[in-house]
Batch of 3 targets.
Target 1
Amino acid sequence: MILRIGTRGSRLALAQSEWVRAKVKARHPDVKVELVRITTKGDKILDSPLSKIGSKGLFVKEIEDALFRKEVDIAVHSMKDLPTELPDYLHLPIFPEREDPHDALISIESRTLGDLPEGSSIGTSSLRRSAQLLHLRSDLDVVPLRGNVDTRLRKLESGNLQAIILAVAGLRRLGLSAKISQIFSLDELLPAIGQGALGLELRKDDEKVWELLRFLNHETTEATIKAERAFLKELGGGCQVPIAAYGRLYGDGLILKGIVAELDGTRVLRDGVRGERDKPEDIGVTLAERLLSAGADQILERIYQSSEA
């Protein structure tokens, strides 16, 4: 049997897909696993912030199209890139164990956020990170930054930036943990929905591949990611909105914390909900409803109106 994995061509995406290939080969040594590199729209447009492109699925649509055409058998995604709505013919049944979900600061001279001089320039492509950073330090100059991990590190080293923000998970997967100057706590920077987690997307009618890969599913990761994605879906959010959430299990329950923030960080609405771990979507919806009733609806309306202007 040949299993073809659809993946983006970045070093991080390939590292993630190579990890899946190694796991499959170890479990099913008789299966030949091939990586098929696919260039997505998000990989092509590098001169605009993600929030300005205004399209969901920037890093997944072309891979999903290849799945539909049966050019690949499985897609390996970073969960934070995956829209909450999937095509009717595809599903997301497998969630490997999550990596570290935190955000990391990488700075010149290994300074922490508190040590950076007033007015320092920090690069990030994420409105979620930008809003929370400005909430912590309104004096910062947050600069839009696109490109893969290596590209962003080179831009930092060029001297025009004092620091950049990247996901701890990606740095670890690339063996770059030594570059981290500071790991933010969840109270400082709440992560993107699904940050640190992978999702394996398959065709619904391909039960053979599902059975082959079922061993990779991690139930704890599945429950927490479903809660986070239900939260995002209820808010109608995407990359153009400062929304963050993180779920974790405690005993037989699940706690989900989330935020909705103003773009300039002047207001950050934060709340948390506890519930039954076997009903993760209900927890996500409940948290979204609580934040909406607390004023998140007004924040989101303003942001969407400004993005359409």
Target 2
Amino acid sequence: MKKLMNIKSAYKTAGISVGVITLALLVFSFNDDLFQISKNLEVFAGLYKEVNLNYVDDINSAKMIKNGADAMLDNLDPYTEFIPESEIENYKLQYVSTQYGGIGAGIYVREGKILVSDVFAGFPAQKKRYTSW
């Protein structure tokens, strides 16, 4: 019986040890990621500062940051893009708006005729129904 208790204790100790080691590895890899991010931001900020202070001509710093962000995102997918704060309202109106802008009907074409398949509540198509044209 005592041998069985020692085996359970050994398994418990081994399990805890594996858990602690796994946790330590995750923390160290996370810290390495944070270090890399911090270092890269430091390089970017240093480059921006040097160009801003020492470039022979005046620069448009907002345009330079926008170009840098766009260049950084170019290697990702075609849908990831940087929207500057000054353009965010226009972007929301064009692409993020969830308002429906039609008459409120689903339509399809059958045998050359346009047919209404659905009429949505609260839209102009619901106000007046025509059974035939």
Target 3
Amino acid sequence: MTPARWGGWGAIAALFGRSKRLHWGATADELDAVLPGDGLIPLPHLQSTRAISIQRPPEDVWPWLVQLGQGRAGFYSYDSLENRLGMNIHSADRIVPAWQVVRVGDDVHLAPEVALTVAVADAPHALVLRGGVPIGSGPSPFDSTWAFVLQSRPEGGSRLVVREQYRSRFAWTRLMFEPVAVISFIMSQRMLRGIRQRAQSPSTRAQPRTG
């Protein structure tokens, strides 16, 4: 095989890997769906849609979403990796009543000094966060939304669909999107599995729902 052909196959493999990272677990219908939070950022430069099935109804999954955040229940992902960046994350394994209220305009912290703002809070269907991560002492170089959408399944249980959208404020920051997409995939698939494990756990099913 010629080098040109090898290069062509390599490009195809890279594109396939990128699509898998951005669309992990999502169906074609979910990728095409208009979700809460869409439209907050016009013409995003990068979008990911990932999803997982959970064998519990939306009202049983929602309490795990509403308590997301640093200083709250964490993000149910790789705490050790997040804490190496100084985020001080400790993912909870229980529903905490004190963390069951979230309203539009509230801050949800990613780290002690970094927070996103609640843009949509529609229990038990959609939680949308908006904002960006600053670099150094400057403002965030991009605007983003992070949407968590719960949909009932006809056969029972839920689909949890998570969509991220990013729009660069400066041309040079588009170079950051591919590394961001890789990190987002690694952390998000772990988070989705973490939410599913907690929501389906027999030890948490009996806890009363609040909020």
